[in-house]
Write a structure and sequence with these properties.
The complex is a heterodimer of chains A (about 160) and B (about 425).
Chain A lengths: L10 H21 L4 H36 L11 H6 L1 H17 L1 H5 L3 H8 L5 H31 L6
Helix pairs in contact in A: 4-7
Chain B lengths: L17 H28 L31 H15 L1 H11 L12 H28 L9 H35 L29 H17 L9 H4 L31 H4 L6 E5 L2 E5 L1 H6 L3 E5 L12 E7 H7 L10 E5 L8 E4 L1 H5 L4 E6 L2 E2 L9 E3 L12 E6 L3
Parallel strand pairs in B: 1-10
Antiparallel strand pairs in B: 1-2, 3-4, 4-7, 5-6, 5-10, 7-8, 7-9
Helix pairs in contact in B: 1-2, 1-3, 1-5, 2-6, 3-6, 4-5
Classes of the chains: A mainly alpha (about 160), B alpha+beta (about 425).
Chain lengths: ~160, ~425
C-alpha cells in the first residue's frame, strides 16, 4: 500500500518562511492580546472582503460596461461605429468611473457623512462639504471625458477620406 | 472547468501577466518600504520608552529595539516623515488594488499546495494580503476619525505592521528577483515573448485564453498612475497653510481653514470636544502648577507673562498626516520653568505635562530632556501676535520642535520636572 506524501520543497524557502512565521507570531500574539476575535476577523475579513466581494464587484461592473459597448446599436441618424471603435470608447467611461470610485472608496467615511458629528466637534470645521466636492470632481471627470470623446470623434470624422459611397 | 475560477482559462484579461505584476510589485516594494520606515519613525517620535503615559504598546518587547530619543532638529522633521507616511499611503491605494487584481487567479489555484514549502508560502500570503489591507484600512479610517476598528489605533496599527512586515520581507526575498528579471526583459524589448512561469509550482499569470483587449498595457499603467496622482493631488495640500490647503479637496484637513485671523489655523481637538470650560480657564481660576526638587510653584497667567518671553516659529504636525506651516509662538521657555523649581536650565530633566482635559489618550504626556532644553520649546501664551484661542490651548500650551502634535499638550494645568 502506498501513501501520498507532500514533498518538502526548497529547504531555503522553508527556513525563510519559518523565520517569517516566528516574527509574525511574536507580533501577532500582541496584536491579538485584547480582542483576538475582532482583530482576527478584521485581518482575515479584509482579505476576504477584497478578494471575494470588492474585486468581483468591480470586475463584474467592468464586464457589464464592455458588453454594453459591444451590443450598443448606433443611435438613429448617427454613423455606426465599428466594434473596435466601440470597444475603444469603453475607456471614456471606465477611467472617470474608476477614478471617482477610487475617491469614494478612500474617503467614504467623510463623503458619506458617517463621521460628520465627530469631525465637526474635533476639528471645528463642517464635514458637509465633502459630498459636494466629490460630486463636483465626479462631474468634472465624466464631463471632461465626454468632451474628449466628442472632440476625438469629430477629428476622426474630419480625417476620414470623403465619400465612400 | 472554464466556469471555475480554479481553471486558468477562467481568467481572460490579456493584461494579466508577469510584466504588469512585476511593475506594480516593484513600485509597492519601494513605496511600502518608505511607509514602514516612516511608520517606525512615527512610533519613535512619541518617545514610548520615556514614560508609560506616552506608551500605548507596553508589551512591545523587542519590537522597540531601535527606539532613540526623538530629536528637535530639524523642526519640520515629524511634519515631513508623517506627511510622507500618510500621503504616500493614500497615493499607493490604486497601486495596491491593481497589484491584488493582477494576482487574484493565484487565490483559486489548484491543487492548493504542491509541497510543504508551497503550502506555507500560501499561508504566508494570507498574512501578506490580510496584513497590507488591515494596515491600509486602519490607517485610512483613523485619519478620518472613523474608529470602527476593534481596539485602539496605536497597538493595532503598530503590531499589525510587524505581522505584515514579516510576511512582506519573505515575499520580497522570494519574489523580487523574478520581478526585477521580468522588468529587465521588458526593457530589452522582449516583453511580448511568453516568459517562463515564476516557478515549477506557480502557473503563469498569462491567460491561456485571453479576451479581446479593451485597454493597452500602457493605458492600464496610466489609469493606475492617474489614480495615484489624483489621490496625491487632492491630499498633499493638507500639509500647507493658505491656498495650497484648498487644493486638498477631500483630505480631512484640506479645504478652508477653520477660522480667520492669527488663531485661524487647523485644530486637532476643539476645547468644546475636550470639555474645557471658560470657567476653569479664567484668569481667576486657572493656575499653572510647576513641581521640581525646590518645591511647587503656582503661577497665574499674568504672572507667567511677567517671566522672560521668547518666540519660536514652529509647525503643528499631526499623526493623522496633516500639518500647518510655521506659526509664531510666544511664551516661556520650558527650561526656564525648570529653573523656577530648582533645575539648572542647561541640565533640565524630563517633564510630565498634564492637561485640564479629563479624558483623551494624551491628556498627560512626557517630554524628554533634549526637548525640554531646546530654547525653542515653549509654554506658549500667544500665537501669531495674539492670545491663544481656547481651541489652540488657552491659557497655555506646549510647543516643541519636531514633536508629534499630540505631545504639544493644550490647556496645560501641571508640569512635573524630573519625576515621570
Amino acid at each position: 500500500m502506498t501513501t501520498y506524501r507532500l514533498p518538502l520543497g526548497s529547504p531555503l524557502q522553508l527556513l525563510l518562511l519559518a523565520c517569517s512565521f516566528a516574527l509574525a507570531g511574536y507580533a501577532g500574539v500582541r496584536l491579538l492580546a485584547d480582542d483576538w476575535f475582532g482583530v482576527a476577523l478584521w485581518f482575515v475579513g479584509a482579505a476576504v472582503a477584497h478578494d471575494l466581494v470588492l474585486l468581483p464587484l468591480y470586475a463584474a461592473a467592468d464586464r457589464a460596461l464592455v458588453r454594453a459597448a459591444d451590443t450598443a446599436g448606433p443611435r438613429a441618424g448617427a454613423a455606426a461605429a465599428s466594434p473596435p471603435v466601440r470597444r475603444a470608447r469603453v475607456m471614456y467611461v471606465r477611467v472617470p468611473a474608476a477614478l471617482s470610485g477610487l475617491l469614494l472608496l478612500v474617503w467614504f467615511p467623510l463623503i458619506s457623512g458617517r463621521v460628520a458629528d465627530r469631525y465637526a466637534s474635533a476639528t471645528g470645521m463642517s464635514a458637509s462639504g465633502f459630498l459636494g466636492r466629490w460630486l463636483l470632481i465626479t462631474a468634472l471627470l465624466f464631463g471632461g471625458s465626454a468632451l474628449l470623446l466628442v472632440l476625438r470623434a469629430r477629428r476622426a470624422t474630419k480625417d476620414r477620406p470623403p465619400a465612400v459611397h | 472547468m472554464e466556469r471555475s475560477p480554479s481553471s486558468p482559462a477562467f481568467w481572460r484579461s490579456p493584461l494579466r501577466g508577469p510584466w504588469f505584476t512585476s511593475l506594480l510589485g516593484v513600485v509597492l516594494l519601494a513605496g511600502i518600504t518608505v511607509l514602514f520606515a516612516t511608520g517606525l519613525l512615527s512610533y519613535a517620535a512619541y518617545n514610548p520608552d520615556l514614560s508609560p503615559v506616552n506608551d500605548k504598546t507596553p508589551d512591545k518587547g523587542v519590537l522597540g529595539f531601535y527606539l532613540f530619543p526623538w530629536p528637535t532638529d530639524p523642526p519640520w522633521l515629524y511634519r515631513l516623515t508623517q506627511g510622507v507616511h500618510v500621503t504616500l499611503g493614500i497615493a499607493l491605494v490604486p497601486v495596491l488594488l491593481a497589484k491584488l487584481w493582477s494576482v487574484v487567479p493565484r487565490l483559486f489555484q489548484l491543487p492548493p499546495a504542491r509541497s510543504v514549502a508551497h503550502a506555507l508560502e500560501r499561508l504566508s500570503l494570507l498574512l501578506l494580503v490580510g496584513g497590507v489591507l488591515f494596515e491600509f484600512v486602519t490607517g485610512v479610517l483613523n485619519i478620518q476619525l472613523d474608529y470602527v476598528f476593534p481596539g485602539s489605533f496605536y497597538p493595532l496599527h503598530f503590531y499589525g505592521a510587524w505581522v505584515f512586515f514579516a510576511a512582506f520581507a519573505v515575499h520580497v526575498v522570494l519574489r523580487a528577483p523574478t520581478a526585477v528579471r521580468n522588468l529587465r526583459r521588458m526593457r530589452t524589448g522582449d516583453e511580448e515573448g511568453a516568459p517562463p512561469p515564476v516557478s515549477a509550482e506557480e502557473p503563469s499569470l498569462v491567460s491561456p485564453n485571453p479576451a479581446e483587449p479593451t485597454v493597452s498595457r500602457r493605458g492600464a499603467v496610466w489609469l493606475v498612475g492617474g489614480g495615484s496622482l489624483l489621490l496625491l493631488g487632492t491630499t498633499v495640500g493638507q500639509n500647507f497653510d493658505g491656498p495650497a490647503r484648498r487644493t486638498a479637496l477631500l483630505a480631512p484637513h484640506g479645504g478652508a481653514e477653520p477660522g480667520s485671523g492669527p488663531n485661524g489655523f487647523q485644530i486637532n481637538k476643539t476645547a468644546a470636544a475636550r470639555g474645557i470650560s471658560a470657567a476653569e480657564t479664567s484668569e481667576e481660576a486657572w493656575r499653572l502648577v510647576v513641581t521640581g526638587p525646590a518645591g511647587t510653584v503656582r503661577l497665574s497667567r499674568a504672572e507667567l507673562a511677567q517671566l522672560p518671553l521668547h518666540s519660536a516659529a514652529l509647525p503643528i504636525a499631526c499623526v493623522e498626516g496633516w500639518s500647518t506651516s510655521d506659526q509664531w509662538w510666544r511664551g516661556v521657555r520650558l527650561r526656564d520653568l525648570a529653573a523656577l523649581v530648582g533645575h539648572a536650565p542647561e541640565t533640565a530633566p524630563d517633564v510630565l505635562v498634564e492637561s485640564l482635559q479629563r479624558h483623551g489618550a494624551f491628556r498627560r504626556a512626557a517630554l524628554r530632556a533634549n526637548q525640554v532644553r531646546d530654547p525653542r520649546s515653549l509654554l506658549a501664551l500667544d500665537v501669531n501676535g495674539e492670545r491663544l484661542s481656547p481651541d489652540h490651548g488657552y491659557p497655555a500650551r506646549i510647543i516643541v520642535p519636531a514633536a508629534p502634535g499630540v505631545l504639544n499638550t493644550k490647556w496645560v494645568a501641571r508640569m512635573t520636572f524630573g519625576e515621570l
